[in-house]
Amino acid sequence: MEFANVYGAPPAELAALSLNARQFSPLSPGADSLESLEAGSLDGLVMLAPPGTIERRYAIAAALRAKKPGSPLLIMAPKDKGGSRLAQDLRDFGCEFVEEARRHHRICQTFSLGDPDAIAAALAAGAPRFVESLGLWSQPGVFSWDRLDAGSALLMQHLPALSGRGADFGAGLGVLAHAILTSPKVTQLTLVEIDRRALDLSNRNADDPRITRIWADVRELKSLSGLDFVVMNPPFHEGGLENHGLGQAFIQRAAAALRTGGQCWLTANRHLPYEAALAPLFKRVTSVAELGGFKIIQAQK
Ligand SMILES: C[S@@+](CC[C@H](N)C(=O)[O-])C[C@H]1O[C@@H](n2cnc3c(N)ncnc32)[C@H](O)[C@@H]1O
Predict the structure, then answer these.
(1) CATH number of the domain to which 236 belongs
(2) Are both 147 and 269 inside the same structural domain?
(3) Looking at residue 206, what is its pLDDT?
(4) Does 86 share its domain with 199?
């Protein structure tokens, strides 16, 4: 069976997609959102389910709500990243399904519509909410959704009052943006983020006329130049695997976006080899702090 609608990137050997299949993952810039579809309007979907339990059940519930009666929903996940729980999820939604195991994935197919009450409960459990301990709007599934990341906290302790035009690469919920904008000398701040949900929430968390938001993969960003500063807590996981190249690409994009003399401030886990990526691109690289397994680096172009 070929699917015209897809959520995430299911392995090609496990799911056939039609050419120009419509993407629904919030991690795919430009994708549509399942939540905003009219109920019962989607003609089938194949989903690589996200690993977090609340997020996965929310995504499955959104797919069940959106799909047309009698249309197929094919859901898969690696066995150790939520796959072994898919069958129970579908049972909890009151769906009939068939399950198979292939290439380390569990794959479930259902034509059921599911129990509306169970769907509504999963949608409510995974919806955006105000998290008191963070003092921010957040949603299960976005980075560090219910606690302040220790690396970001350390960076905020060391960040000076910045000035001019800058960017926050991988801005998440807008935690760093909020701190950056306490400086009245900041005239403009561009938040770049690949997760549509986080970017939408940052709108509620840091509502400031100096902010511009870009839903994009930093690695593909060519539009920023002449900036006075770039601040970031670069991601180092992609598809559940550690990936140092991602942070290194963020550093290259920061160097390209900064003016001569502009500053890059970054926080990272101590083991990540970012100094080697910074050295050839920046005039001066300074280790500002190291604490609790994190480091803060300032680099001047
Ligand atoms: C370590 S988190 C930092 C989030 C936020 N700045 C903070 O301090 O809480 C990295 C962020 O980068 C985002 N991200 C991951 N890959 C990305 C990419 N290729 N382009 C843009 N953002 C990305 C993630 O969604 C996540 O929000």
Answers:
(1) 3.40.50.150
(2) yes
(3) 84
(4) no
95: its two tokens: 């769906």
| pLDDT at site 160 | 97
Q: What is the C-alpha separation between 89 and 91, in angstroms, rounded?
A: 5
Q: Tell me how crowded residue 223 is: count the other CB atoms within 10 A of its CB.
A: 10
Mean pLDDT in order along the chain per 10 residues (301 residues): 96 95 98 96 97 97 97 97 97 98 97 97 98 95 96 97 98 96 98 98 93 97 95 89 90 98 97 94 97 97 98
Number of domains in the chain: 2
Ligand 1 binding residues, C-beta < 6 A: 143-144, 149, 152, 170-172, 175-176, 192-195, 198, 217-219, 233, 235
* In a shared domain, residues 79 and 196: no
**235 Cα to the center of ligand 1, angstroms:** 5
User: What is the reported pLDDT for 243?
Assistant: 86
Structural domain span for residue 166? 129-300
Strand order in the sheet with 105-110: 16-23, 2-7, 45-48, 73-78, 105-110, 97-102
Q: What does the alpha-carbon distance between residue 172 and residue 219 come to, in Å, rounded to a whole number?
A: 16
User: Residues 231, 166: contact at Cβ < 8 Å?
Assistant: yes
So what's the pLDDT on residue 1? Answer: 86
> Which pTM was predicted?
0.96
Q: How far is the CA of 256 from the centre of ligand 1 (A)?
A: 18
- Taking CA atoms only, the protein residue closest to ligand 1 atom 12 is 170
Of 125, 151, 178, which marks where a domain is finished?
A: 125
| Same domain, yes or no: 94 and 232 | no
> Is 165 found in the same domain as 54?
no
Q: Which atom of ligand 1 is nearest to the CA of 168?
A: 6
Domain boundary among 103, 125, 147: 125
Ligand 1 atom closest to Cα of residue 249: 19
Q: How far, in Å, CA of 95 to CA of 116, rounded? A: 11
